[in-house]
Design brief:
By secondary structure, the chain is an alpha/beta fold. Helix content is about 40%, strand content about 15%. The chain is built from 13 helices and 14 strands. The protein has a seven-stranded mixed β-sheet with strand order 2-10-9-8-5-3-4, with helices on both faces. It has a five-stranded mixed β-sheet with strand order 1-13-14-12-11. Strands 6-7 form a two-stranded antiparallel sheet. The structure holds pyridoxal-5'-phosphate.
Length: about 400
């Protein structure tokens, strides 16, 4: 068999995402002065641009760390051992955040909505009504394991309806810059994000956005960790307080360039691009599913994320498809994550397509065409017309 991997490899997993050459080139430089000059001035421009992407006029603290770091930081600034929280779980990542809260002595009440459904507002209202002591409600906007997109404003409405004073804390790590998010308009108190998904920068920086209500809680409780404390990072006396130490020098150059690229394209255009590309993926999957086992995990289009798509194909074909496309065609698809069942404990029948960040129409057509070649190669039947359907979506734009 002739190997077809010798062009540019495409890592189509839901993070880290494809990094623009411009971002990589911006990072390829000698170490800058970390006390004065360009780096300090550049950081001051990054802060407002990050807030613009989150659609907030409030605060952002930056961390050297991955998404888990932002999870921990958000928790340390808002909660204390003995506090109770309500966690709305729609996949692996809600549970992951809860595990970190539990480790710091917080009691986590979990409402689990399953792996192919969204949050039920009535269940949230009931849980809040039964426990006035809940300090925070945690949710994930797009759960990267199931690819469900939850309605953040609907959860806020339920909290307001119940007159509950808990903080609303949202994980947008998968989807900031891909799915629309409106921190202030939706009444979100704390939001966490990472740099390596929609923001197109190599993993290593993360962000906690927070409003004055959340900061007042930080003020009352104090923060048990000097490192995670968001106050000096937001309002530093000295530049190094932004980072509680040395700045992530090269990441800042990369992030500056990524934010420039988002600004040049226009945030709303970035979001629209993700929406069209996601619809192309779904159209192909739906057509394949007419004649074979391919099935989107989230049936309702309005509940699907524009950043990532979770697909069922039946064990062991998810794993086979990933192995074939990576070994034979230069495409790496995402593993099934947190989707194991008794019959398929390792999620071999599930895979994910990352379509977040620096992704174009031709890249998505390439992914879909390669997937169909893979179905032929590994012997999975499929319905006709999938690539035509995707092309029509791209043509309409
Ligand atoms: C990727 C991701 C995380 C974890 O981020 P890391 O950088 O791997 O720590 C958390 N939540 C969501 C929704 C994610 O997509």
């Amino acid at each position: 068999m002739t190997s077809l991997t010798h062009g540019r490899h495409y890592l189509a997993i839901p993070g880290p995402s494809v990094m623009p050459d411009r971002v990589l080139q911006a990072m390829h430089r000698a170490a800058p002065n970390i006390y004065t000059g360009e780096l300090v001035e550049m950081t001051a421009t990054i802060v407002p641009d990050l807030k613009a992407v989150a659609k907030t006029a409030h605060n952002v603290a930056m961390y050297i760390g991955n998404g888990h770091a932002a999870w921990e930081a958000a928790l340390f600034n808002t909660l204390q051992a003995g506090d109770e929280i309500l966690v709305l779980v729609t996949g692996l990542f809600g549970n992951g955040w809860s595990v970190m809260a539990t480790a710091m002595g917080v009691t986590s009440h979990i409402l689990d909505f399953g792996r192919d459904a969204t949050i039920d507002p009535e269940a949230v209202a009931k849980a809040l009504g039964e426990n006035a002591g809940i300090k925070a409600v945690l949710m994930v906007q797009t759960d990267t394991s199931t690819s469900v997109k939850n309605d953040v404003a609907a959860v806020r409405a339920v909290m307001d309806g119940a007159g509950h004073k808990a903080l609303l804390m949202v994980d947008c790590i998968a989807c900031l810059g891909c799915d629309d998010f409106q921190m202030d308009a939706w009444g979100v108190d704390v939001m966490v994000a990472g740099c390596q998904k929609g923001l197109m920068v190599p993993p290593g920086m993360s962000f906690v956005f927070y409003n004055d209500k959340a900061d007042a809680v930080r003020g009352e409780n104090g923060c048990a960790s000097a490192y995670w404390d968001w106050r000096p990072r937001t309002d530093p006396e000295l530049f190094y307080h932004h980072w509680c130490g040395t700045a992530p020098t090269h990441h800042l150059y990369g992030l500056r360039t990524a934010l420039d690229m988002i600004g040049e394209e226009g945030l709303e255009n970035v979001l629209d691009r993700h929406a069209v590309l996601a619809r192309a993926v779904w159209a192909a999957c739906e057509a394949w599913g007419q004649g074979g086992p391919v099935r989107l995990n989230i049936a309702e289009p309005a509940l699907r994320s524009n950043a990532v798509t979770t697909v069922h194909i039946g064990a062991p074909f998810g794993t086979r498809l990933r192995e074939w496309s990576s070994a034979q065609a230069g495409l790496t698809l995402g593993i099934g994550l947190g989707m194991g069942t008794e019959e398929d404990p390792n999620s071999d029948g599930v895979f994910r397509i990352g379509h977040m960040g620096h992704v174009s129409g031709q890249m998505i057509m390439g992914v879909l065409g390669t997937m169909q070649a893979g179905f032929d190669a590994i012997g999975v039947p499929y319905g006709e017309g999938a690539l035509d359907a995707a092309a029509k979506v791209i043509a309409k734009g």
